[in-house]
Amino acid sequence: MGEDTADTSSSGRQGRSNGATASAGVDDKTKDDFCLAAVYVSDAQFNRNIFFDTSPQAVSLYLLYNHWAMQMIVYVFIFVDLALALFEDPAVIPMPIWGTSLVEMICLIVFTARLFHYAKVIPRIRFWKDPKNICIIVIILLSLIDIIIYGSLKSTGYNAVRWSRVLRPLLLVNVTEGRQLRRAFRSIRNALPQILYVFFLFMFSMLLFSLMALKLFGKRNLFTVDGEPYFTNFLDIVFDLYVLVTTANSPDVMMPAYNYNSFFALFFILYILINTYIFMSVFLAVVYNNYKKHLKEEVRQLVKSKRQKMLRAFAVLQQPGSGEELVVSQENWNQLVHLVQPDISNAHRELLLFVFSLLLIGKLAFVQLPDLLNIQVITMKSRPHPLHIWFPLLYDSSVSRLLRHAVKHKAFVYIYDLIILVNAIFIGLDEENPLIAYAEWAFLALYLLEILLKLYTWEPRAFFAKHQFWNWFDSVIIVAALVGAIVNLSDGYTSRQILDIVLILRVLRLIRVVDSIKRFRTIINTLIKIGPTILTFGQLILVVYYIFAMVGMELFKEKVKYLEADSTDPYKDSCGTPLLRGTTFAKNNYCKNNFNNVVSSFILLLELTVVNQWHDILSQSVHGFKAVWLYNNLFHLFFSGYKTVDGLLQRMFEADLSLEDADDMDDPNFSNITFDSV
């Protein structure tokens, strides 16, 4: 896994900036100077930590490299590369080998071109010292070798394994844009040594209890409800007690002993108290505290790196101020902000300058620019309503003013909240009842009337501004429900798919009540705000799932089969194999939980993550598939024993630590000002 390299500039360029520009005037700043300063500020704003060449040509290539379109292209081709698993054997949608190989070759060419572009941006010695570049090169070469070997063997009729597919998700980690994902993996890696001590102590406790259980119950001739011997095999006891830690087999696992003697319940109570409640709580606390400690260190490094970049940008644009102080003029500052964020308005730039309230911007104020640019600023333009322009007398009439006042009144909101609640009751009733069907049309008409009244009251462009999420949500849901209802009516309720969509849209209309309750709206807005952080750790989980799914597909495909009800296969009731006949897995009809394609593999891994009934899923492995049992247990240990999911949920709300937490900086004179959203 690649580490981000430190960001320092070549001594020649920095010396020129610190010396020559210190006495230069405003007019001496060239376009190249502003481009270089803009790159430093942009890197500080987006926490990029790349050692790049400061020559004008390299800076231009670096700007192109970081363009959002280039980054989007990389992610699109990574997605296509990962999605090839849908079409490769074992496939959800089969495609010829030459087709998938051709698509993968195109993806590898794009990754190679991106890597070549990156090599032109940074010094050559830095490129070859960066582990993530080496990792990408190795992945590309191994994938190319695998394509050639796999295609050759398949064309000659031999069986082959696509072993390079497990490397595909590592591209997500090692591309330059995956810096947040690398930080997450680094935090987990750094916290792992301390966590292992608690894990080994937990395993010792579980083995100790397993040994006691063997001695207590092994010779008492007890049997489970399935007629199996109870607690006579040490490894089976270890597995059952491990499952008990997750509470998935409670109280089933203790009932034979409890039925034999009520006193034996104390053994299981003590085990659950120590291993489930105490050890797991300590385990989670250690995961969280160590992860947070290393996360704060990452934040400190980011803050230090951000300030260093801003000081370099300041050195490029600095000029003499009053006394011996070096400053940046407002003219240069405005031009710099325009280069960094060309889409912001003049009013936005004036607002940022108003925060400083200075004609000449000093070093202390200049380093705050990335934080100012990251503030969400909503620009409201006062526009007259189109109806006011077209029909001024009608729009300004007393009736019109009264109507607009009524729409803006709180009572209007309360009335529609009541309508939504009544609608919720009708949704729960039988939709095939004619009265209910007519009522749905009435509710739909009321919702359409609400949107039309709001559009009449507020200027349409302001109503559908990009920050008006709930207005967009309401309008899309209501219009989609209207279209679906019309299509469904023309179909005469004969299309089940259309009917399902209509019913879902009816339920989604109830979400509108969230916008009416301030606390609910705050929670939803918070979840939207932390969306990028959730996406980062969604990628982390995707990497782990994809690797386990690819390995599982190569090793265990077609071991378990799902057969339709009309199948004539003699082993239809045992998932296509006599080894699972009479097992809990087969009785519960879990046959679709297999590694026969990437979709079923992901669903199986998700079921193991969720925990409930996961031990029943593993029962397929105990009866004939020991390798599957070991493999699935390894995955479950990663996600459940390590408390990874809990740790990630905690991390989501720690990821946006304020810079006040990044104390003990080398230079206390550059403490960051804290700004809220404007």
Automatic annotation (TrEMBL):
<feature type="transmembrane region" description="Helical">
    <location>
        <begin position="411"/>
        <end position="429"/>
    </location>
</feature>
<dbReference type="Pfam" id="PF00520">
    <property type="entry name" value="Ion_trans"/>
</dbReference>
<feature type="transmembrane region" description="Helical">
    <location>
        <begin position="263"/>
        <end position="288"/>
    </location>
</feature>
<keyword id="KW-0472">Membrane</keyword>
<keyword id="KW-1133">Transmembrane helix</keyword>
<protein>
    <recommendedName>
        <fullName>Ion transport domain-containing protein</fullName>
    </recommendedName>
</protein>
<feature type="domain" description="Ion transport">
    <location>
        <begin position="69"/>
        <end position="293"/>
    </location>
</feature>
<keyword id="KW-0812">Transmembrane</keyword>
<dbReference type="GO" id="GO:0005216">
    <property type="term" value="F:monoatomic ion channel activity"/>
</dbReference>
<feature type="transmembrane region" description="Helical">
    <location>
        <begin position="469"/>
        <end position="487"/>
    </location>
</feature>
<feature type="transmembrane region" description="Helical">
    <location>
        <begin position="230"/>
        <end position="251"/>
    </location>
</feature>
<feature type="domain" description="Ion transport">
    <location>
        <begin position="410"/>
        <end position="639"/>
    </location>
</feature>
<feature type="transmembrane region" description="Helical">
    <location>
        <begin position="195"/>
        <end position="218"/>
    </location>
</feature>
<dbReference type="InterPro" id="IPR027359">
    <property type="entry name" value="Volt_channel_dom_sf"/>
</dbReference>
<dbReference type="InterPro" id="IPR005821">
    <property type="entry name" value="Ion_trans_dom"/>
</dbReference>
<feature type="transmembrane region" description="Helical">
    <location>
        <begin position="523"/>
        <end position="548"/>
    </location>
</feature>
<feature type="transmembrane region" description="Helical">
    <location>
        <begin position="68"/>
        <end position="87"/>
    </location>
</feature>
<feature type="region of interest" description="Disordered">
    <location>
        <begin position="1"/>
        <end position="26"/>
    </location>
</feature>
<feature type="transmembrane region" description="Helical">
    <location>
        <begin position="93"/>
        <end position="113"/>
    </location>
</feature>
<dbReference type="GO" id="GO:0016020">
    <property type="term" value="C:membrane"/>
</dbReference>
<feature type="transmembrane region" description="Helical">
    <location>
        <begin position="435"/>
        <end position="457"/>
    </location>
</feature>
<feature type="transmembrane region" description="Helical">
    <location>
        <begin position="134"/>
        <end position="153"/>
    </location>
</feature>
<feature type="compositionally biased region" description="Polar residues">
    <location>
        <begin position="7"/>
        <end position="21"/>
    </location>
</feature>
<feature type="transmembrane region" description="Helical">
    <location>
        <begin position="351"/>
        <end position="367"/>
    </location>
</feature>
